[in-house]
């Protein structure tokens, strides 16, 4: 015998609540108690209930779908995975589902966003890898589409965003190395077209100029260069007549590649050369090489992005939905060497 399809009515019969109450509970209605919503969701899950998206859209004009525009520029596997986990956690218990729409480096950046908007595939969007004059953001602002960005822009119209304070990261990282007596400090930057790259470079330059030193940004490569390129770079720089005595690098993977080049040159991290970077996993904690890091949690990022987008969909002003995360430091270098 075929299993009966789960509907609002079958859930109502099993739970003892009215169909309208069941419907409101599955939409996370704030006027209902958490206990009521939890009971109804448990029964809905047990029955295998899934809303009819087509009917829902016809009835409400909403899809209850949110689209994450997934840039494939960098560190795609782990960082993207953690952001998707965080977004999913942030949407848990709400009527919204997450879809992932890829944005390829060789395509028009607007293509993925246009697809979502023009097909009505989602009620809101999450965008990463913002640029100062981001055409995707401008496009969504002009059409009044709810969205949130991971990263800021320089556009005049306010929009919802969550960002890591990369200016402060580079400023504090460079000052930390300066206090340690380092002077020939190189910044390995992000890809320069992104907003956060300019912020890192500005923070690094400010600290160097304040100290009366010449900034040295490694313009021939970026944190997205291959591990072998980064290793060769650090190894070749060690053979210079006046080799760098420190690096600032905003990527965990790039830091590890630089360490490979430093060690291959015969130099010791923490002796002839220092490194300050970012930590985005527990990988740094198991390395024998010791360096100071600022943490950036991409699961947390995903949860906050989900929260901000839900609030935007609920009608809150975009200007009130802007969050900047302050770097939190883990100093592993012995205090006598700082």
From TrEMBL:
PROSITE patterns assigned to the protein according to its UniProt record, in alphabetical order: HTH_LACI_2 (PS50932)
InterPro entries: HTH_LacI (IPR000843), Lambda_DNA-bd_dom_sf (IPR010982), Peripla_BP/Lac1_sug-bd_dom (IPR001761), Peripla_BP_I (IPR028082)
GO MF term (any one): transcription cis-regulatory region binding
Keywords: DNA-binding, Transcription, Transcription regulation
Record-annotated HTH lacI-type domain positions: 6-60
Protein name per UniProt: Transcriptional regulator, LacI family
């Amino acid at each position: 015998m075929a299993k009966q399809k789960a509907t609002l009515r079958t859930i109502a019969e099993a739970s003892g609540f009215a169909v309208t109450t069941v419907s409101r509970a599955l939409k996370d209605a704030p006027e209902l108690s958490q206990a009521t919503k939890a009971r109804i969701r448990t029964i809905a899950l047990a029955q295998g209930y899934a809303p009819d998206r087509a009917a829902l859209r016809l009835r409400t004009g909403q899809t209850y779908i949110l689209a994450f525009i997934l840039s494939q520029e960098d560190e795609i596997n782990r960082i993207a995975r953690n952001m998707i986990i965080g977004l999913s956690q942030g949407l848990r218990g709400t009527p919204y589902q997450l879809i992932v729409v890829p944005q390829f480096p060789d395509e028009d950046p607007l293509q993925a966003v246009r697809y979502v908007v023009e097909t009505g595939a989602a009620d809101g969007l999450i965008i990463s890898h913002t640029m100062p004059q981001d055409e995707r953001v401008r496009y969504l602002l002009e059409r009044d589409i709810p969205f949130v960005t991971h990263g800021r822009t320089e556009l005049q119209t306010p929009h919802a965003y969550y960002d890591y304070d990369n200016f402060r990261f580079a400023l504090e990282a460079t000052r930390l190395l300066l206090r340690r007596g380092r002077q020939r400090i190189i910044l390995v930057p992000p890809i320069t077209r992104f907003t956060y790259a300019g912020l890192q470079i500005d923070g690094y330059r400010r600290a160097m100029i304040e100290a009366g030193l010449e900034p040295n940004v490694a313009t021939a490569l970026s944190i997205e260069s291959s591990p072998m390129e980064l290793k060769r770079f650090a190894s070749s720089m060690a053979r210079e007549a006046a080799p760098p005595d420190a690096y600032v690098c905003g990527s965990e993977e790039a830091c590890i590649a630089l360490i490979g080049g430093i060690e291959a040159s015969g130099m010791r991290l923490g002796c002839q050369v220092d490194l300050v970077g970012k930590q985005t996993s527990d990988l740094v904690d198991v390395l024998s090489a010791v360096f100071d890091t600022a943490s950036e949690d991409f699961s947390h990022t995903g949860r906050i992005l989900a929260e901000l987008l839900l609030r935007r969909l609920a009608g809150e002003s975009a200007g009130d939905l802007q969050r900047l995360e302050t770097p939190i430091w883990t100093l592993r270098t012995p205090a006598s060497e700082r």
